[in-house]
Amino acid sequence: MLIKSLGTLHEFVGGDHTELREFLNPDKDSVALRYSLAHAKLPPQVWSSLHVLTSSEVYYILRGAGRMEINGEQRDVVPGDMI
Question: What is the pTM of this model?
Fold first, then answer.
């Protein structure tokens, strides 16, 4: 069983320029899953850099609004959206 709490996770700036706290990283955690789970933040009017990963990511928007681009397709996203 793997349990992590947001308040205990180290915050760092990711390669895409987002402020991250990783709950799950398939390259760092000893779990048989191939996706990542992180708490990410961006200041208003700031875009993260486009990036490619070897694992999958799921995004769940908690606050704010923005635009996601995946494989060239762009969509507006708001709180409650899962991408």
Answer: 0.75
